[in-house]
Each structure stands twice: as C-alpha cells, then as structure tokens.
Amino acid sequence: MTAERRTAQHAPHKPAGSSHRSRSRRTRLALATAVATALAAGVAATTANGLPGAQDAPGMAAAAASSSSSSSVRADEVADGYASVDALGQDGTYGGRGGATVTVRTLADLEKYATATQPYVIVVAAAITMDPKGKEIKVASDKTIIGSGTSGHIVGGGFFLGQGVHNVIIRNLTIRDSYAGIWNDKDHDWDAIQMDGAHHVWIDHNDLRNMADGLIDSRKDTTYLTVSWNRLQHDNKAFGIGWTENTTADITIHHNWFHETEQRNPSTDNVAHAHLYNNYLQDDPGTDITASYGNYARGHTNMVLENSYFEGLKNPVTRDSTATLVQRGSIFAGTSGRNESGGGTSFDPRASYAYTLDSAADVPALVKAGAGPRSTTASTAAAAATTLTVAKDGSGQYDTVQAAVNAVPAGNTARVVIAIAPGTYRELVKIPSAKQNVTLQGTGPGRKSTVIVYDNASGTQKPDGSGTYGTGGSATVAAEADGFQARNLTIANDFDEAAHQDMSGLQAVALRTAADKVFLDSIITEGDQDTLLLDTAAKDKLGRVYMRNSYVVGNVDFIFGRASAVIDASVITLKKRWDGSSAGYVTAPSTAADRKGFLINNSTVNGDVSSASFYLGRPWHAGGDAALDPMTTVRDTTLSAAIRPAPWTDMSGFSWKDDRFAEYRNDGPGAGTASGDRPQLSDSGAAGQEIADWLGTWTPSAS
C-alpha cells in the first residue's frame, strides 16, 4: 500500500481449531468435474503439494488439508490426514520426492527401484504382471509409486510394506486380478497392498479389484496412514485393519468408493483414532456379491464417521460393545440391519489436522467422478515443462533463484519449473511480465525447508540513491507475469520494525503478485505490515489469484491489493506488533467496482494475540479514489477470539459500510450473528460468492 494512506496505522492501537463444513453443491461439483478431466503435472519436478502440516505451521500444530474437489494426482504431492502428521521421526509423508524419477515397464525394474534403499519416484507406465502370481514386492522406505495416467497396472499381485517401512506413497495405479476362483482362499493369501507395522503411508487415487484376499490390509500397528480417493471394488475383503492387541494406530479414510465388496468395508480393529469421512459405500442388488456390513468398529477402536453415503448395504454401521463409534451427517439409502453409533466420547480429528467436509448428498457424484486413477499421464504433462534447478551448495544449475529466473526466455509459453533445493536464499526475486508460466517450488520435505527472504521496507533507500523502494517495491518476491505459481516454500520479509522506528514507511511486503492466473499452493508468506500484496498489472487488468493449503502471517493490512483473490483451505495467523501489542487488520482490499475482491473460504484465522484486537478488514481507496468498491467476504471459516465483535472498520475517511464487506457461516469464538456492524450474506447471496464466481473459466492446476 502506498505510504500516504498509512500514516495513522504506525501507532499501535489499543485493543477495545479449524472446523468442518461443506462447500455448496454447485461449487464442489463444478470444481470436481473440472479437475477430474485435468491431471496436474509434476513427476519430473519435485515439490510438495500443500497440505499444511505441523512442521510448516507458523504458530500452530494443526494441518489444513487440501480441498477435496480441487485435489489432483501429482507425483510431487504430500499426504493429508494422519499421514501428514509429524511423528516417529518422520515429517509427514512425501514419498520419494527429492530422489530420482524413473519410469518402469517391467517387473524387474519395478522391483529394483521399489526395494532400493535410496528415495525414488517410480512411474509405472505399463501393465506389469507379477511372476509368480500373488507376488508382493517388498517396498522400502521413501518411495512414490505412481501410475502414468491409466496405463499403470499391477496384475496378479501387489505390494508389501514391512515393519518400520515409512514414507511411502502409492498412487494412480490399478492393482488387480490375483483372484484364483475361490473367495477367502487361505492358500492364496494375496493382497493388493499389505502393511505390517509400517508408518506414514498414503494410498491415493488407485483402482483395487478382484484380488484373491484383501485389497488393503493395514496390520500390526501400521499407523499414520491415509487412504483416499480409491476405488475398492469387486472383492470379498476390501480393507482390513488390525491383527494386533495394541490400540495405537491413527488412520484417515476419506473419499473412497467401496463398490461390490462383501466385507471389511473397512473392518477396523483396535485403532486409537480412526477418522472416516465422505466415503461412498455401494452394494448393487441382484449380483453375486452382497455386502455383509459396512463400516465396522471392532475391539477398542475409537472411530469418528462423518458425512459418508451408504447405499443398499446391510448393517451399514456396526460396532463392538468395547468400541467407540460416533457418526454424524451420513446418509443411508436403502440400507437395513445394524446402524449403530455412540459407545463413548469421540476424539476430535482437528487436534491433529484440518480438513474440509463435503456434503453427504454430494458424495456419490464427487467420489464417482474423482476416485481412481486419473486419465492424463503425469509423465506427459511433466514433459511439457522445463525444470531449472537451484541450490546454494552449487549442486544445481544456478546458485540463486533470480539467476534461474533470468534464464527463462522472454515470451515462453510452456511452464518453466524452478526447483529450489532446501536452504535460505537471502535475495530479491522478480519475475517480469514477459516471463510467463514460471513456477517456484521448494524440493524439501516442507514449506519451511526452502525460504526466500529479504528485509526491504517501503522507506528503505535504494542502493543507487534514487529514493526509497515504496510499498510495492519492497517485496521479497515480485511476480508480474501471468501464470505464476509458487509451491512448497516460504516467502518472507524479515524487516525489523523495532530497529527502524525512526524510518518513514515501515510497510514490508513478502510477496507481490501483479498478474492473472496466479496459483499459490502450499506456501507460507510471512511478515508484519503488508505481507501479501495481491495486485493486478494495471487498474483495467484482471488479476485472479488462487491460494490454497497455505499460511499467511502478519498484523497490519497484511492481505491487500486490487486482485480478485481466493484464499482457500488455509491458515491466516495473526501476529503481535513490533512492541508486543495486539492490534491489526487482516485485509485491505482496493477493488474496482466491477470486480470481485477477496474471498477467504474454508480457512482458519488464529494467532497468539489478544482477544478482540484484530479487524477482518477495512477499505483501501488507493490514492483516495472514491470510485473503488473494496470487497472482502469471509465464509465458512473458523475465527479465533482475536477477531473484534464489530470486525470491519473505516479507513482514511472512507466508511466500510459504503463498500462490500460480509460474512457467511463462520464459526469459532470470533464469529458473530448478523447486525448492522456485522453483515451476513443470505443463502441466495452466498450462492453468488463462491470460488467459481472468482475464478470463472480458469481451473488452477500445476501444468
């Protein structure tokens, strides 16, 4: 923001867990359909998809899961759910990221790389038949095994993860056809995926079917496991969990399609925390397979079951008398028999990670469209991108991020991925407008592994003596080219306000975007005043920004600008001022009258600050332009007690009531009811303020 409108805010003002909610049906289904047809790239470029994990969270330990309807299948993604939690010496689950990427088409090559001691991303690009039939490859730690589009098949066998094996991702594969003619055949105990004492495993977007024994067996205290977006079909035993006297495992199971599976859907025995949500269990009438039960909590299992859809099943929800099973929000269509809940006090999954619930009514369409392998091949998509490597130790092509940016040709049309090795890069980075489709992505295990940081402020003198930088010019990273993306890194401005109180112009931007189709995926932006400037190339230019699974940290107007920006499934962390006081403003939009401003959606606003000390926003009429119509909508978001009861305020003589500020379905101690000081959208009004209304025909993806 410009210095002239910031005079009053330099003086400190005295002050006068995420929740689950479903997005609207229109937004969820529209985005799911779009994403289901566009697989994002990333096999050759090693980065983390953003799922805020505890190792990354500025000021909080909870994780924020990615929006399910915008999930995509990339070899560079990291897990959500319990697989994302830091434990047992493992920082979440990211598989072979950081190791070499290899493409395999033979059993010998698959086994060679899957059993190796070093990390690998293994792209399966053919149907590989196990020999002998029933063979289960013993996968070693730090592996991603991912199918290339729909061509990756494992036929007649599967994978085994033994005691202590960890950090394994199995994605986008079809594993099938070890069935030898007899269900439950003890002589042919052949599974698609069996885990005995493994931890930090993510099984995602696979098609598992027609195996001699189980599709998935999670045994002998396997823990920190997430099973998501799979099709488990045409089998006797779908998913068994247990084979232990201990009650220590933590497991997340979401958005899976259990279809024509007789038992273990799943059967969950002695699991400390079993979180099942948004699964679709379907049994077709009149077929040779009849499901005998659905979700089963056995032994001392503690299960939370949310917003799933059960169709045509006998005994859809069952539990032992020794188990806890709390069910809420699910739909039961044509079911019969046992449908049980209760039996104790449930745990709260939010204590470990955040996530977004879809409406149970939307689950069949979402899961049918999104579960199983994606059709566009990751290897083909990755081939369209050029990768430039940066490493401080000289092991990359470039030593600095800016040097890699300089190497991008002007006018490029294909994506250029700048893969940045872990480390702290103290430099200024500018992506000029002629260098479109550039991605900055860290290659470490989390967002904090790769840090780009500098300490310019608005009032900092330029080295050439030509004046000060100004607010926009203070940015550590300035992205002025359309199609800019950032992933799995931190962009910070560590300007020391306390040491420069004699300076005029303390605003210090971490990231400035002035472009269209900007995708910020799994990053941290951190500063104090004016952390994140979301701008456009010019007043008459459209500038759309989509940020997801990220963190924004600051205290005064720290999300500001004239862009049409969505902050989705993210954490906004409030920070104390330089003198230890608590006072500030989250947003300062400067929106044109005919444009959308800021949408904060399905997120969390928190921080270690005083109660009732922060406003959600105020209107920035840049340059005193009365024709502007600033806009911020905060919806379906958890607000901490730090938010003021009257969350909007005036700015520089402009009343917030003359502009566009509203809330919808927020919760938490900082939420409030409708009043003249706290406008709330109606249901019909909220239907026009959803993600699709901001992004239009643009579907953010990594390609």
Label this structure with key terms.
703 residues, 16-stranded parallel beta sheet, globular, disordered N terminus
Distance between the termini: 32 Å
The number of strands is: 49
Rg calc = 25 Å
Chain-averaged pLDDT: 88
- How helical, in percent, are the residues? under 10%
Low-pLDDT stretches: 2-55, 59-72, 377-384
In terms of DSSP E residues, the strand content is 25-35%
Strand count, sense and barrel status of the largest sheet are: 16 strands, parallel
Task: Give an overview in words.
It is a single chain. The chain is mostly beta strands and 703 residues long. 8% of the residues lie in helices and 33% in strands. It has a 16-stranded parallel β-sheet that branches.
Structure, briefly:
This protein has about 700 residues and is mainly beta. Helices cover about 10% and strands about 35% of the residues.
Architecture blueprint of SSEs:
Blueprint: H1 25-36, E1 100-104, H2 107-114, E2 120-124, E3 127-129, E4 136-138, E5 143-147, E6 153-155, E7 158-161, E8 166-171, E9 174-176, E10 193-196, E11 199-204, E12 207-209, E13 214-219, E14 223-228, E15 231-242, E16 249-254, E17 257-263, E18 267-269, E19 271-277, E20 280-282, E21 295-298, E22 302-306, E23 309-311, E24 317-319, E25 324-328, E26 331-333, H3 363-370, H4 378-383, E27 386-390, H5 401-407, E28 416-420, E29 423-426, E30 429-431, E31 438-442, E32 450-454, H6 470-473, E33 477-479, E34 485-493, E35 511-514, E36 518-526, E37 532-535, E38 544-548, E39 551-554, E40 556-561, E41 564-568, E42 571-574, E43 584-589, E44 598-601, E45 604-606, E46 614-617, E47 631-635, E48 638-639, E49 660-664, H7 683-686, H8 691-695
Helix pairs in contact: 1-3
